[in-house]
């Protein structure tokens, strides 16, 4: 008995949701509000977490990957410096 009474409101709700869906994503996202971070930032933060935990080998591996994979990133030079301080220097970039 209750089911026939609920069909109309449910149908209206579904129709309203489908009708407004195209307008929900109608604009380009604001780059200032981006939730993603560049991979080189994430790698440097990961290396810092390894430093805090005292995992020297994982830190070295992460810094090496960062410096070789993203040599022109803002963290690359610092990663090379930290690797030298840790006794595991990389060759200078070309």
General description of the model:
This protein is mainly α and 94 residues long. It is built from four helices and no strands. α2 (39-53) packs antiparallel against α3 (56-69) and α3 (56-69) runs antiparallel to α4 (76-85). It is elongated.
Write out key terms for the chains shown.
94 residues
Topology of this protein?
Elements: H1 2-24, H2 39-53, H3 56-69, H4 76-85
Helix pairs in contact: 2-3, 3-4
Summarize the structure.
By secondary structure, the protein is mainly α.
Q: Based on Cα principal axes, name the global outline.
A: elongated
Largest sheet: none
Number of DSSP E strands: 0
Low-confidence stretches: none
Average of per-residue pLDDT values: 80
| SS-derived structural category | mainly alpha
Could you tell me the radius of gyration in angstroms?
25 Å
- Percent of residues in helical segments? 55-70%
How many alpha or pi helices? 4
The sequence of SSEs as H and E is HHHH
Distance between the termini: 78 Å
**Strand proportion:** under 5%
